[in-house]
């Protein structure tokens, strides 16, 4: 049965993929939740695993159980997410001196809790603008990387940043 599903998914069958998704989603979510104790990581890793399953469907092996392949993908995805989270944490630690330069635009930074500053700056932004702004400022992604990650045009990223930066700078000045 699983080998048939693997063949169908490899051939691009959305029905097979939907079936696999509905069958494994909660099992995968519970597996990740058990490993991390985090509902956020469980949801994020589950979603990313199924995205990878679809993107790399042609490289699935018909010799291995589909469940084994899915759970291996989830495990490596979890490791990637945890590494990225740690990397972001380290970047944020250094952000007080260098990461807000695009927002601060030359303002001296005397505040040390960058997380709180960023939360205050972004609290009233629309969700997409907040996401784009965070990816740019916190993760230091380029407009092109953000565009690719969110499947939107570079012009859209640019427009959101054009709208966010003046308000963020004004908000930052009011915090001083």
Write the layout of secondary structure elements.
Elements: H1 2-10, H2 14-36, H3 39-55, H4 66-98, H5 101-104, H6 114-122, H7 127-137, H8 143-150, H9 154-175
Helix pairs in contact: 1-2, 2-3, 3-4, 6-9, 7-9, 8-9
Provide a descriptive summary of the structure in words:
With 176 residues, the protein is mainly alpha-helical. The protein folds into two domains: 2-86, Rna Polymerase Sigma Factor, Chain: A; 99-175, Arc Repressor Mutant, subunit A (Orthogonal Bundle), CATH 1.10.10. Helix content is 77%, strand content 0%. The chain has nine helices and no strands. The chain has helices at residues 2-10, 14-36, 39-55, 66-98, 101-104, 114-122, 127-137, 143-150, 154-175. α3 crosses α4. The longest helix has 33 residues, at 66-98. It is elongated.
Short description:
This protein is mainly alpha-helical and 176 residues long. The chain has nine helices and no strands. The longest helix is centred in the middle third of the chain and has 33 residues, at 66-98.
Keywords:
mainly alpha; Rna Polymerase Sigma Factor, Chain: A; Arc Repressor Mutant, subunit A; 2 domains
């Amino acid at each position: 049965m699983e080998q048939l599903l693997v063949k169908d998914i490899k051939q691009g069958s959305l029905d097979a993929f939907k079936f696999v998704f509905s069958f494994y989603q909660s099992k995968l979510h519970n597996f990740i939740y058990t490993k991390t104790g985090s509902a956020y990581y469980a949801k994020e890793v589950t979603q990313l695993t199924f995205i990878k399953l679809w993107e790399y469907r042609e490289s699935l092996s018909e010799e291995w159980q589909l469940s084994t392949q899915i759970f291996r993908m989830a495990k490596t995805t979890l490791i990637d997410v945890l590494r990225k989270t740690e990397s972001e944490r380290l970047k944020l630690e250094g952000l007080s001196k260098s990461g807000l330069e695009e927002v601060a635009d030359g303002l001296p930074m005397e505040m040390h809790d960058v997380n709180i500053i960023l939360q205050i700056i972004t609290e009233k932004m629309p969700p997409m603008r907040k996401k784009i702004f965070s990816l740019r400022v916190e993760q230091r992604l380029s407009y092109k990387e953000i565009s690719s990650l969110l499947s939107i045009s570079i012009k859209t990223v640019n427009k959101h940043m054009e709208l966010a930066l003046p308000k963020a700078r004004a908000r930052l000045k009011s915090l001083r």
